[in-house]
Amino acid sequence: MVDTLSWGWYMPTQFPFPEILSQDVLDESLNGYTINNPYYIEYTIRDGDNDGVINDDDLDLGPIRYFGDYIIGPTTTLYPQEIALYTNSSIVMNGQVISGLAIEVTLFTDGTWGYRLMDTSIPEGHYSAVSSVTIGTWNGVEYTGIYTTGVDQMFVCYLAGTTIQTARGWVPVQQLRVGDMVETMDHGLQPIRWVGQNTILGVGKNAPVRIATGVLDNEVPVYVSPNHRLMIHGPFVELLFGEEDVLVAAKHLIDGDLIRSEPRALAHYVHFALDQHDIVMADGLLSESLLPGPEAIKTISEADRAALLDVFPVLHGGWEHYGPAARMCLTAREAELLRWAMEREGLLDRKSPLSRRLERETA
Questions:
Q1: Residue 29 DSSP one-character state
Q2: Which residues, in sequence order, are CB contacts of 27 under 8 Å at separation 6+?
Q3: Exposed, middle or buried, 96 (CB in 10 Å: 0-12/13-18/19+)?
Q4: Cβ atoms of 195 and 270 closer than 8 Å
Q5: Whose CA is closest to 173, among 156, 158, 154?
Q6: What are phi and psi of 317, to 5 degrees?
């Protein structure tokens, strides 16, 4: 059983457009519906069977199947019945209209309903200041579940200014272009197939994480998004996880000192995709290229997402068709165990770097 903290707006009243004879009630009838003074709440998603999905209980598919999957709200427990996505939605925050947003709507088995913003362009803490929400256009798909892996994850990117090791030397990540050859740990030089960039408010869950010089063998301070995964290795890694190397999100290594969150007014994030998920060198630090999983794809702008799908058409059939992760990716709980081991061994220290440098062949 896995619990994940999430958030959303909740309507404790009955869904406004019920269809008595059908379980498929989340459709175009909700298009353009406006909710004033939305009720913001934080809640716990409980994944009873640990499959990474909160499955719904749509009776069209037969009897209720997922007794262990539900949402724990402030005053009640809710069971999803249907889930749908509405594009081109909008919100009003501090008097400003923000449009072109994607909103997920969930109808619960007791007839109440909730909704949450899927875009990541507004920092944590501001959602409660939203004064109204207008549901956009139903995308025609009824989803069977809500992913818990990476729920509420933000951008997985490097901060502009980080240099990446390429065939032509160290290049600032924002200057990388499709076709540039990047050094990888496992596959040598690999061509960049896609580059995505976005400038957002660098606060809350979007605040960059700073890794101080030398902590992970980096030659200068490195800034990445909180969910960008870094490669860690050492005897304790193999002892804990049976793997020589693992990947761990930067936010799970934060100690408030050598690895810390550093909010800023604006954060220019950049990422790139190769033919496969790979380990690259960023200012001496080993970390990941883009792994286009379901949550990572949601954080990419519509234009960048379309370009990514053009380059990797297999993603139309599901993100898993891109290929496996380059290393084992630790969950939050596994990362907590890793941090405990690192602190016990005194490895979160400028004098004890954990990353290995790429070994380049010499002529």
A1: G
A2: 84, 138
A3: exposed
A4: yes
A5: 158
A6: -90, 0
* b/e per residue 103-141 (b: at least 16 CB within 10 A): bbbbbbbeebbbbbbbbbebbeeebeebeebbbbebeee
CA 137 to chain centroid, in Å, comes to 24
Residue with tokens 């008595």: 20
- Is residue 56's pLDDT more than 60? yes
Confidence of residue 47 (pLDDT cuts 50, 70, 90): confident
Q: What pLDDT, on a 0 to 100 scale, did the predictor assign at position 323?
A: 86
Quick one: pLDDT band at residue 151, thresholds 50, 70, 90? Answer: very low
Q: Ramachandran region of residue 240, left (φ > 0), alpha (ψ -120 to 50) or beta?
A: alpha
Q: Which two tokens stand for residue 250?
A: 């930067």
- Burial, 36: exposed, middle or buried (Cβ in 10 Å; 0-12, 13-18, 19+)? exposed
Say which residues have a Cβ less than 8 Å from residue 290's Cβ, sequence separation at least 6. Answer: 156, 194, 196, 271, 272, 273, 274, 277, 296
Tokens 């990117």 belong to which residue? Answer: 157
307-333 average pLDDT score? 84
Q: What is the DSSP letter of 241?
A: H
H or E stretch covering 269: strand 264-273
Given the DSSP bridges, would you call strands 245-249 and 328-329 parallel, antiparallel or unpaired? parallel
Largest distance between two CA atoms of the chain: 75
Q: Which residue has the higher pLDDT, 319 or 66?
A: 319
The answer on pLDDT for 31 being more than 60 is yes
Strand 188-191 to strand 181-184: parallel, antiparallel, or no bridges (unpaired)?
antiparallel
At 122 the pLDDT is 54
Q: Are 354 and 286 in contact (CB under 8 A)?
A: no
pLDDT in tens, 69-79: 888 888 889 98
pLDDT, tens only, 116-148: 887 544 544 456 788 999 999 999 877 777 765
Q: Which of 290, 289, 284 is nearest to 222 (CA)?
A: 284
Q: Which residues in 287-301 are b (16+ Cβ under 10 Å) and which e?
A: bbbbbbbebbbbbbe
Question: Against a cut of 0.90, is the pTM above it?
Answer: no
